[in-house]
Design a protein that fits this description.
Blueprint: H1 18-34, E1 49-54, H2 60-71, E2 75-80, H3 92-101, E3 106-111, H4 116-121, E4 127-133, H5 139-153, E5 160-164, H6 171-182, E6 186-190, E7 206-208, H7 211-217, E8 220-223, H8 239-246, H9 250-254, E9 261-263, H10 276-279, H11 286-304, H12 309-315
Parallel strand pairs: 1-2, 1-3, 3-4, 5-6, 5-8, 6-7, 8-9
Length: 318
């Protein structure tokens, strides 16, 4: 498959094929080695200009993209909405067109409105990468989760993965659902009914109403943060009650019939959806997810820029 096969933009995983997702994951593997060197840089994207356009606060995703861009030798510009003309009333399209007039090559966008990334991609010629739009998708987080699971299990075919927690507000959950199912995994969700989408039964996933049932079934748990900033009153009685009923605790995991891989996209609410001794425990791959995030984003940048997968392997020797 040619690199161009992933398209002009990366807006989500829902419309990518299993072959396209596998291409990105396979391309990320050699890029991991670059991040382990003393000099963590290759000239692959030298001369390209990438704008990180973040309309929502972000630390982990923004820094991960910035690391990926700089390790490929791209020139990067970070634009935070609080310090931009958007705060003065400029529209998203005007901002993007002004940036494009400066001859940029790519835009990485995070936006609180679902569909903002596609809206932008349809109106500018530069490549657009969705770094999270509303409650729609967060494709690079989904991809790094897939890479982490593939490293642990060898293949995702038949692997049982449960997404636990605030599925309703989670763009990470949606990207994981699409990506996992396309690569042959069995997917379930677990959480209060108030935090599950109304159409969850139509998404091809199993639904558990008790965390104990999910733990008994799953080989991996991807534990989602309660997104309190997106909630109005009434979704849960209290944080303490949520932890009592749905929290992933060491005591619950000790009753599992097998060792379970523990994942979390971050940031974590310790003591709410996940206890500290689980997050820091021997079966946690949370830090591996962070490491894989840089490699996956390097792969996406590289492929959208027109690189071929075999050249990513060759880049290890540069």
């Amino acid at each position: 498959m040619s690199a161009a096969a992933i398209g002009k933009d990366l807006l989500g995983l829902a419309h990518l094929s299993a072959e396209q997702i596998t291409l990105i994951l396979d391309t990320a593997v050699p890029f991991k080695e670059i991040s382990e060197r003393a000099i963590k840089k290759v000239p692959t994207l030298r001369g390209m200009t990438i704008v990180n356009l973040f309309f929502e606060a972000s630390t982990r995703t923004r820094i991960s993209f910035e690391f990926a861009e700089k390790r490929l030798s791209a020139d990067t510009v970070n634009v935070a909405v609080s310090g931009s003309s958007v705060s003065k009333g400029e529209t998203l399209v005007d901002t993007a067109r002004n940036l494009e007039a400066m001859k940029i090559d790519m835009v990485v966008i995070r936006h609180p409105s679902s569909g903002a990334a596609r809206f932008l991609a349809d109106r500018i010629q530069s490549n657009v990468i969705n770094a999270g739009d509303g409650t729609h998708e967060h494709p690079t987080q989904g991809l790094l989760d897939l890479l982490t699971l593939r490293e642990r299990f060898g293949s995702l075919q038949g692997v049982r993965v449960c997404l636990c927690g605030d599925v309703l507000h989670s763009r990470v959950a949606r990207s994981n659902m699409w990506g996992l199912q396309k690569l042959g995994a069995e997917v379930a969700v677990c959480g209060p009914r108030s935090l599950l989408p109304n159409a969850i039964d139509e998404l091809g996933v199993q639904v558990f109403s008790r965390i104990e049932e999910a733990i008994e079934w799953a080989q991996a748990l991807n534990i989602l943060r309660l997104q309190l900033e997106r909630m109005q009153a009434g979704y849960i009685p209290s944080l303490r009650e949520y932890n009592r009923v749905f929290g992933v605790t060491r005591e619950r995991l000790e009753r599992a019939p097998r060792d379970i891989v523990i994942m979390h996209p971050g940031p974590m609410n310790r003591g709410v959806e996940i206890d500290s001794d689980v997050a820091d425990g021997p079966h946690s791959v949370i830090l591996e997810q962070v490491t894989n995030g840089v490699a996956v984003r390097m792969a996406v940048l590289y492929l959208l820029a027109g690189g071929r997968p075999e050249l990513a392997e060759a880049a290890k020797g540069q």
